[in-house]
């Protein structure tokens, strides 16, 4: 679910290599689909550039399209940085790493299934003589495909150093590390074995079988193992060997390399255009341009998401699991995909008629880099770019981009601030639609004197996650940054004495207990007490501007995590909140809200095109932000809500929870728009650090129907019913701040009763809210 697209601009050849859409309109790539809103793709460039600037990748190729062809194909950055710099091109050849698993190996297995040469329930030991030793005799083909075999993720590299024959002997000697079928453990060994089975049954090495049965029929001439010299010359390099040479055009995975470059888990090379043909085949139910690779029934069985010990997986494919960080947030529950260690990813969504291909060499040049978040964000942009009459995907203002308050101020030449001494409250989220910092824009604005900076919780860079934040200094401007989350929560009079105006520009998320709203309110009070102007540069909240979800905060119980008597979700922008705060206290003082434009309040950030920046260290996706109002209420208790994992607020658990019992009870409540699956996870920080927790994973299936607080209260009700002696409720009211609802939870009220109590007082709030709204609802 996603982000704002900056205006299209000329592209520097040093940064980007671009193929025009005209050049991909026809031919082998298929017709250019017209169902995509092309300007929406403009948001990809700044995201990629930020990753390049942070050293997360040297460059990449992105391809987006549907069953008919490619709608978007771009190369960004550089193919190589060392030993010499070479621009990335759309025909760059990439080591696909673990994309080998679904595209070569699993597809080959499904071909053998279609011809009756194997069945999913067949035992691998019956197909590979000798494999069944040491407790492996009952491991099935399906368990290998779904990573439930119990086999180790990778056996020691030393097992491969004495030749292929010895390597396979040692693989055959492995014993499961957990009983087969009991846990989901992603394992390269699973697909090494599957590749060997393909060879045994077909009489051909895996590379030859895949070429004959998949790649040649699909017209994919640049896909395969062991690329020749012409393809190697176009290959993206990885890291340096011990002898100083670069790994380029040869498989990076050391086990695949020691097996001669052909293996079931790694070794496949390809280009974006070739992979687009594979994706189109899958979207066309197994056929492309008259060649049938798989039957529609086989595609359905292969890609159907099934529960796999608390994860949703297909056969060889990911669907929604602990490895789905690279999944687009607006993809349907039919989407399937996979990532590769070298920096590759592919997602195919029959429910959206969409494919998203991302290819990079993130390991170049220093064996570092990270692209999973970037792949997921690009997938979200792709989903939102589909033009179709669906309220959850396309806002009413689809042809217009959202313009932020800082954009409007910049367009006006900063006129309201000219000749004034300015203090700015901001952090890393204070950027314009093109990603330029508000700090830098004001510092460079002619006639504007930027005197002082202030930062909220998490600091000016948004990366600190600790009780007190110290004053700092902005590196780019040299300005001092006064912390408003340390010794003070409100600007001191002496910090405002030399200012004419105090400006606030921070991205809120739309949840009552997110502390940026308290910082805004306290700073506004301080500005008015000092007799200076207060200005809010408005921004849409990412989780829409209309949804109201109780319960109300009890009057008189205001605090830094509950600054005003309002519901948990209040459906307002930060500027509208400022208007409401001012009116409610009948305060005297000048407040200016610089409004947003072209914003549909019914849209989430997925639809309005605004650039996603993690608002705080653990708010890592729009999906997390939508879940946060309900799930965040629980984290003051003895539960983990996923902090210390890759998916904060998408998990709920504790060591004393039975995941299946817990998930079944919550699903029985029937909260709309969400799917709950049993999960086990081990946080590496925060609650239950280093301790395995049983619990649930949360999948939003329909954002428009989903009520996060309703889910959060349902979880609380189920916890109280199932684990009354284990779940500690005494701190549950710290963020809830509603005594009646809290008492009802403690007394064992059911979800429906809690939902009813949560509605109390909301109508009165709506009347107060109405007077402060700046945008038509």
UniProtKB/TrEMBL annotation:
It comes from Posidoniimonas polymericola. InterPro entries: Beta-lactam-related (IPR001466), Beta-lactam/transpept-like (IPR012338), NamZ (IPR008302), NamZ_C (IPR048503), NamZ_N (IPR048502). The keyword Signal applies. This is Penicillin-binding protein 4. Pfam families: Beta-lactamase, NamZ_C, NamZ_N. Keywords: Signal. Residues 422-622 form the Peptidoglycan beta-N-acetylmuramidase NamZ N-terminal domain. The gene is pbpE_2. Residues 626-775 form the Peptidoglycan beta-N-acetylmuramidase NamZ C-terminal domain. The keyword Signal applies. GO terms for molecular function: peptidoglycan beta-N-acetylmuramidase activity. Residues 46-373 form the Beta-lactamase-related domain. Gene3D superfamilies: 3.90.1150.140, DD-peptidase/beta-lactamase superfamily, Uncharacterised protein PF07075, DUF1343. Residues 1-27 form the signal peptide.
């Amino acid at each position: 679910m996603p982000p704002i697209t900056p205006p299209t601009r000329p592209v520097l050849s040093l940064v980007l290599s671009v193929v025009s859409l005209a050049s991909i309109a026809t031919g082998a790539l298929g017709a250019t689909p017209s169902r995509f809103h092309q300007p929406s793709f403009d948001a990809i460039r700044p995201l990629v550039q930020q990753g390049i600037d942070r050293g997360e990748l040297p460059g990449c190729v992105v391809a987006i399209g549907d069953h008919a062809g490619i709608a978007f194909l771009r190369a960004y950055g550089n193919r190589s940085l060392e030993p010499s710099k070479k621009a990335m091109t759309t025909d760059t050849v990439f080591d696909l790493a673990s994309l080998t698993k679904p595209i070569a190996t699993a597809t080959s297995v499904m071909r053998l299934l279609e011809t009756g040469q194997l069945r999913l329930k067949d035992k691998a030991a019956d197909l590979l003589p000798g494999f069944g030793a040491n407790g492996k005799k009952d491991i099935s083909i399906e368990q290998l495909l779904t990573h439930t075999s119990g086999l180790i993720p990778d056996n020691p590299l030393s097992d491969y150093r004495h030749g292929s024959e010895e390597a396979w002997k040692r693989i055959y000697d492995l014993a499961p590390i957990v009983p087969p079928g009991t846990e989901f453990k992603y394992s390269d060994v699973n697909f090494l074995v599957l590749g060997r089975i393909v060879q045994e049954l077909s009489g051909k090495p895996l590379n030859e079988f895949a070429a004959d049965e998949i790649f040649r029929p699909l017209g994919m001439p640049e896909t395969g193992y062991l690329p020749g010299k012409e393809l190697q010359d176009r290959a993206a390099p990885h890291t340096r060997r011990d002898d100083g040479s670069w790994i380029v055009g040869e498989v990076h995975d050391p086990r695949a390399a020691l097996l001669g470059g052909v293996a079931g888990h790694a070794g496949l090379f390809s280009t974006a255009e070739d992979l687009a043909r594979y994706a189109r085949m899958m979207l066309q139910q197994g056929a492309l341009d008259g060649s049938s690779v798989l039957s529609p029934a086989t595609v359905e069985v292969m890609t159907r998401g099934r529960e796999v010990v608390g994860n949703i997986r297909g056969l060889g494919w990911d669907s929604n699991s602990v490895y789905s960080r690279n999944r687009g947030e607006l993809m349907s529950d039919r989407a399937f995909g996979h990532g590769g260690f070298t920096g590759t990813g592919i997602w195919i969504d029959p429910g959206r008629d969409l494919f998203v291909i991302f290819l990079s060499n993130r390991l170049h040049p220093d064996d570092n880099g990270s692209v999973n978040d970037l792949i997921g964000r690009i997938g979200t942009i792709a989903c939102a770019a589909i033009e179709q009459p669906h309220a959850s995907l396309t806002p009413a203002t689809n042809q217009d981009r959202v313009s932020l308050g800082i954009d409007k101020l910049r367009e006006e030449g900063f006129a309201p601030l000219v000749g004034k001494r300015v203090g700015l409250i901001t952090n890393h989220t204070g950027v314009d639609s093109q990603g330029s910092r508000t700090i830098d824009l004001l510092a460079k604005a002619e006639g504007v004197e930027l005197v002082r900076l202030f930062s909220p919780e998490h600091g000016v860079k948004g990366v600190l996650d600790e009780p007190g934040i110290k004053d700092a200094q902005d590196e780019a401007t040299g300005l001092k940054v006064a912390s408003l989350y340390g010794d003070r929560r409100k600007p001191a009079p002496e910090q405002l004495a030399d200012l004419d105006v105090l400006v606030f520009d921070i991205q809120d998320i739309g949840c009552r207990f997110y502390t940026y709203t308290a910082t805004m309110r306290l700073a506004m009070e301080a500005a008015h007490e000092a007799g200076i102007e207060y200005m809010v540069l408005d921004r849409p909240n990412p989780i829409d501007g209309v949804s109201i979800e109780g319960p109300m905060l009890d009057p008189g119980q205001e605090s830094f995590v509950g600054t005003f008597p309002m519901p948990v979700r209040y459906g307002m922008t930060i500027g509208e909140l400022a208007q409401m705060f001012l009116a409610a206290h009948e305060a005297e003082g000048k407040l200016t809200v610089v409004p947003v434009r072209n914003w549909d309040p019914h849209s989430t950030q997925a639809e309005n095109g605004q650039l996603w920046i993690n608002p705080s260290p653990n708010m890592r996706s729009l999906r997390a932000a939508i879940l946060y109002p309900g799930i965040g209420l629980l984290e003051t208790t003895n539960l983990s809500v996923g902090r210390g994992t890759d998916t904060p607020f998408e998990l709920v658990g504790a060591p004393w929870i039975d995941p299946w019992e817990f998930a079944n009870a919550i699903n029985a409540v029937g909260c709309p728009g969400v799917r709950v699956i049993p999960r086990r996870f081990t946080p590496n920080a925060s609650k239950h650090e280093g301790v395995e927790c049983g619990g649930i994973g949360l999948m939003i299936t329909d954002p428009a129907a989903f009520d996060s607080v309703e889910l959060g209260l349902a979880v609380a009700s189920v916890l109280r019913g199932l684990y009354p002696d284990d779940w500690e409720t005494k701190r549950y009211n710290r963020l809830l701040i509603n005594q009646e609802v809290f008492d009802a939870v403690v007394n064992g009220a059911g979800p429906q009763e809690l939902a009813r109590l949560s509605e109390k007082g909301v109508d009165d709030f709506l009347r107060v809210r109405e007077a402060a709204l700046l945008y038509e609802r």
